[in-house]
Queue: 2 jobs
Job 1
Amino acid sequence: MGRRREADPMSTTMDTESTYSGYSHYSGHSKKAHRQGSRDRHKSPRSKDGSRSEKSVTIQTPPAEPLLGNDTSRTEEGQDDNWGETTTAITGTSEHSISQEDIARISKDLEDSVGLDCKRYLGLTVAAVLGLLVFLTPIAFILLPQILWRDDLEPCGTVCEGLFISVAFKLLILLIGTWALFFRQPKADIPRVFVFRALLLVLIFLFVFSYWLFYGVRILDSKDTNYQGIVQYAVSLVDALLFIHYLAIVLLELRQLQPMFTVKVVRSTDGESRYYSLGHLSIQRAALVVLENYYRDFPVYNPALLTASKSRAAKHMAGLKVYNVDGPGNNASGQSRAMIAAAARRRDSSHNELYYEEADHERRVKKRRARLVVAVEEAFTHIKRLQAEEQQKAPGEMMDSREAAQAIFPSMARALQKYLRTTRQQQYHSMESILQHLSFCITNNMTPKAFLERYLSPGPTLQYDRDRWFSKQWTLVSEEAVTSGLQDGIVFVLKCLDFSLVANVKKIPFIKLSEEFIDPKSHKFVLRLQSETSV
Amino acid sequence: MSYVPGQPVTAVVQRIEIHKLRQGDNLILGFSIGGGIDQDPTQNPFSEDKTDKGIYVTRVTEGGPAEIAGLQIGDKIMQVNGWDMTMVTHDQARKRLTKRNEEVVRLLVTRQSLQKAVQQTMMS
């Protein structure tokens, strides 16, 4: 089979040679190119979507009409996309256009600022109003009779006044408990309402409403004179509120503490995986837990490390072209299957390349790392901390930690920069951040190794500047409703713009533990021999 | 050659008569034994069944009386001069083979190839 490199209309690599060869095969294959060109027009929007976060080049095959002047060209002039475009290359980012990523980001920002804040604040205000109402209700129960029909009331004896004290203290305990449990900064925006919280609010509302109803009908209307009874009624309300508070603790906090499920979280771009233990949570809360741990446990997402495998795969498939010998059938799936089979059977040495490339890269990284470590160690020897007495003696040369950092930085800057370039981390560390870290280490008496710990291996996302995170807006994708509880086998995906985290839930198995008693005196041993005697 | 408790042991055996050689003050037979009911049967390289605690021939010295008589390495010794060797300790086996007043020992030994030879002749 010859190795003619014709323009492959579906390729998304920067295959610049193919444009010229496409032109040269123009006249001979006009009809075929025309058909392929029209197919391309419908499929090109999709191919643009497919290459979201890589800067890729989409090349459209030249349509036959403009050069040959067919009749069909006039009917298709209505379509603006490709008219008159022959071999135009559409790049991911250019001076005057916005890339797909930016458009997606802008639309998401618009969504954020308007809709979701309202929802969050609405929930908070409802809860706050209800809480205030509930807190003031017992006080109102006690005070209203005094205000409205003071003269008819029976005098309040010792028992009654004792009840005042108990109401006061119970309200104080309730207040402290509510403050401890509920007055917290909301740390996340979740898509659906918290089922348990909503249930509790409804329960409290119904409860207080029914108490007010009873109070209104039986006490206010009839102007009951038994003040002690009224005060006891208020005390019973406070007791019941304390019990509801207990219920809230159990439902919201205690129930999910016992681990029941293990979640395996895998990052889609590079396969980093972690396991977490969770209790009985709803899917959205489980997603929150996963995300909180993601920022701490997963090494930061570095798009610079991902480009190698795709180019390798493209090189492997390049140069294969399907020729249809049996007739004009356009069997696309058959063609692609044939291509896959041919590529699999093909004997190429891309594995060899990968092996040597990786070995080479590792060697280079190790060399640069050795140079870096030596440079930093040497730089740190130039600085000495001044003790308090010595500080009076030599006032002239004293520097604070920032100046000391600036003084020793140039000697290690080059080695550090080369190392960061080799491990593709250079965009995560600006010179200012390095200087800050250096002065921080000097202040805290850290060794060169402690200073270097941040640069030698990629740390978790929290360690870096917020602008470099690539992952601030998350979407939860799940087949089950997000407020339903976790079950064995549930899979949900947390998507952000550049990558996604796939979470797989498994139940912790039921463990049967039994006991066995071994008497310490029963540990006895014999020698096992195999002796050989000659006779 | 496997031992089923309660059943008599059946095996195809070969009679080997060894005339002891006098070497100074000792009478030697020219082979080494291993095994016994007080030993670890799993370390026996010659036995087919690793729970077999019988006495096995582990070495045969070249040119010695045992080799001349036809004893081979890996043979299991079933009887010595009429005394059973399938259920003895290692020391008892040694004693039975090295009695000072006997100049000839008559052994009954068995090995795998004997069993196979008999089976082949029976089938053909």
Job 2
Amino acid sequence: MVHWSAEEKQLIASVWGKVSVEECGAEALARLLIVYPWTQRFFDNFGNLSSPTAIVGNPKVRAHGKKVLTSFGEAIKNLENLKATYSKLSELHCDKLHVDPENFRLLGDILIIVLAAHFGKDFTPSCQATWQKLVGVVAHALAHKYH
Amino acid sequence: MVLSGNDKTNVKGIFAKIGGHADDYGAETLERMFVTYPQTKTYFPHFDMAKGSAQIKAHGKKVAAALVEAVNHIDDIAGALSKLSDLHAQKLRVDPVNFKLLGQCFLVVVATHNPAALTPEVHASLDKFLCAVGSVLTAKYR
């Protein structure tokens, strides 16, 4: 079980409280598809992903980004119980979506960059460390039911 | 992985924006890396890790200088960093995974200081460049 200190919980809550899930989610997913183009393999039915401009403006990317980050919000509400919270989602990603868990780590790293750009100096080293820990734990929970 | 013409333009552009702050970026990158990925401190057991440490500042300056050198010779990063590559292979032997961690922290520093300049396209190019540098530095490991 992962342990979260009071300071870490505070850093997570204070950042999350100021995040627009829709904007942040859309940007994180768009950047994932742009920076690591092989991740586009999961989104054949998303329409035009032919250029960074197309990806950023793609409504399906925006909608899916929002969905993904909304789910991330659930993780934040259930820090003490992540594996259970993500159990069904983990099975889905393995059995139906066939997503290599490495992609969760890539998205996590991208999310950190998006937060850094959004918060600037307020995204202190401790903040980064806490959030890097969080995205790692979320990725791990999402991979937990893989077989 | 090959750097396109656009990638090279993007990387030169962002480093031009960083300008004289490269040393500070280097130090901040290391500071963030040591805090976020404590295992990276194992390569610096002799370092004072306190905030503002002179050793971290000096080492950050070295790291930044190497990145700038790579940018200035972006058509031949392997040539520009050949001696550094030898050093890492023969003496330092930093495990290859750590270059990714350093790269992530450098991106974070650039993002916190230049959010508008780090567009998705520039982000992609810079990430590729940092991967290329890491590849060069570990190329002679075995």
